[in-house]
Design brief:
Order of helices and strands: EHEHHEEEHEHHEH
Low-confidence stretches: none
CATH superfamily: P-loop containing nucleotide triphosphate hydrolases
Number of domains: 1
Strand content: 15-25%
CATH topology: Rossmann fold
CATH class: Alpha Beta
Shape: globular
Distance between the termini: 11 Å
Largest sheet: 5 strands, parallel
Radius of gyration: 17 Å
Number of strands: 7
């Protein structure tokens, strides 16, 4: 692998906006040997000390929900060409597991998550900052479908969480971070022309060499 510092990309946006779709599409196009993908969701703070009921009520869309020091430490390690032990988070128990996923260094590092353009120390690392912009009604429908199918939650609990914390946090923290983006993707993560332009830009910068 090249000794050059990795090219770092931040992919932000609201819940279920298509951040993962864009990030995984880039990973597929670049190849795992060239791109290391980190999801902010892996870095939720550990709440093992709280009972399950309290963990379920925690605001996971607030900046305080994330372990920023650990994430920045891991990005430092990747920048030095070292592998990192990425935490594995279990959404059914609202907590980290005891397992980790070893992520090798790569020429490109993509960090995706709702608040990756909010936290200043993290934001300053990125060579390219993206914001995936999707209408709120579509994001809510996707979140409802996902949380019922994948996380074992009831529609009533999802709606309550959305109104109490997800929507207010989006308006207070996530949406305002859009002003830091270099590129805004309209229509979400299925915007193929925008992904094509992004990949072309990466090639111009001689990242995929």
């Amino acid at each position: 692998m090249s000794s050059r510092r990795p090219f770092m990309i931040g992919v932000a946006g609201g819940t279920c906006s298509g951040k993962t779709t864009v990030s995984e599409r880039l990973a597929d196009l670049a190849g795992v040997e060239r791109l290391a993908l980190i999801k902010l969701d892996s870095y939720y703070v550990s709440l093992t000390h709280l009972p399950l009921e309290e963990r379920a009520k925690f605001n996971y869309d607030h900046p305080n929900a994330f372990d920023w020091p650990l994430l920045n430490e891991h990005l430092d390690m990747l920048a030095r060409g070292l592998p990192v032990p990425v935490p594995i988070y279990d959404f059914t128990i609202y907590d980290r597991t005891t397992e980790v996923r070893m992520l090798p260094p790569a020429r490109i590092v993509v960090v995706e998550g709702i608040l990756v353009l909010y936290e200043p120390a993290l934001r300053d690392r990125f060579d390219l900052k993206l914001y995936i912009d999707t209408d709120a009604d579509l994001r809510f429908i996707r979140r409802l479908q996902r949380d019922v199918a994948e996380r074992g939650r009831t529609p009533d609990s999802i709606i309550a969480q959305y109104l109490e914390s997800v929507r207010p946090s989006h308006e207070q923290f996530i949406e305002p971070s859009k002003r830091y983006a270099d590129v805004i993707f309209p229509r979400g993560g299925l915007n193929e022309p925008a992904i094509d332009v992004l990949l072309a830009r990466i090639r111009e910068l001689a990242v995929l060499d």
